[in-house]
Amino acid sequence: MTAMIKIFSPTYYAIADGDTRIEGESEQLTWTWNHPEVGDRLSLGLARLWEVTAVHQYRREDGTALYVAYMALVDTKVKPRAEWFDVRRLLESPATCLNLYANRDGALHQSSRNFLGEAPATGHFLSQFDAETRKTSASTFWTTGFTTFTSTDPSATFDKIHLARVEEYLETDEDASVLNPEKVLATAVHP
Amino acid sequence: MSEPLPPDEPVLESHAATSPEQCGRMEKRFKGQGLDLKLVATPQKGKGLLSFLCLFKGKDADPEANRWTTYTEDDGDD
């Protein structure tokens, strides 16, 4: 399924070595006017700086580009490419895709590497996980569509990237009013 | 607007981890124990330290399995 999702190109998804990432740092989807270049230094949520070690381009049918930037903590030894988790997984599972779930403002809600090549399930709620109770439950956000970016770089680490659009599902007018103060005001003025 | 459907995630065995790399190490460890478990996805569901889920399927997949409570450096590298 293809859904035309407006994105501000170029956009990039930053991936960092999981062994050196600490709490407060996460993989990030960033909408910017300039995609990062190898050697650029960026933050992943904290004051520590990460250096871009590789940038891979993916393109949608209409030519819109999405970039994946691999990062290493500044002044640390970079793992050889052959040891990267994503490189090894793509060799084992060539259909591996990266699924990104963002809202209408571009904020990333979830991401997932899928080693079976499965695209986001449109029309379904996203699930959420509580690490303390180890329980998974349905969230209030659901996937309304997605668009696909295909790798154009032979060194890319995913076969495809699916960028899904998520919306919050508001079950009743009462629920909707919580997120829409204007509606509450209108109700009060015109009983 | 029709109501969204429940999450489209089959019942799988899942464990929390700090990174997809650790999910790969879990898979290697399970295989070393003779378990038929294949890592199929590593969704990132939150921003905490244990923000990644490792989803496994296979003959030995058990949604209630509690093979360990935490994954530590002692679990080894690839």
What does this structure look like?
The complex is a heterodimer of chains A (191) and B (78). In chain A, strands 1, 2, 3, 4, 5, 6, 7, 8, 9 and 10 form a 10-stranded mixed sheet that branches. Chain A has 3 helices and 10 strands. The radius of gyration of chain A is 19 Å and the shape is globular. Chain A has helices at 85-92, 173-178, 181-189; strands at 11-16, 28-31, 41-43, 49-59, 65-73, 97-102, 108-114, 125-130, 135-151, 160-168. Chain A is mostly beta strands and 191 residues long. By secondary structure, chain B is an alpha+beta fold. Chain B is built from 1 helix and 3 strands; from the N terminus they run βαββ. Chain B has one helix at 20-32, and strands spanning 13-17, 38-44, 52-57. The chains are: A mainly beta (191), B alpha+beta (78). Chains A and B meet through helix 1, strand 7, strand 8 and strand 9 of A and helix 1 and strand 2 of B. Strand 7 of chain A pairs antiparallel with strand 2 of chain B.
Structural class designation of chain A? mainly beta
* Rg from alpha-carbon coordinates of chain A: 19 Å
Q: What class would the helix/strand composition of chain B place it in?
A: alpha+beta
Alpha-carbon Rg of chain B, integer: 14 Å
Low-pLDDT stretches of chain B: none
Set down the secondary structure blueprint.
The complex is a heterodimer of chains A (191) and B (78).
Chain A: E1 11-16, E2 28-31, E3 41-43, E4 49-59, E5 65-73, H1 85-92, E6 97-102, E7 108-114, E8 125-130, E9 135-151, E10 160-168, H2 173-178, H3 181-189
Chain B: E1 13-17, H1 20-32, E2 38-44, E3 52-57
Antiparallel strand pairs in B: 1-3, 2-3
What are the main properties of this structure?
heterodimer, A: 191 residues, mainly beta, 10-stranded mixed beta sheet, B: 78 residues, alpha+beta, 3-stranded antiparallel beta sheet, 1 helix
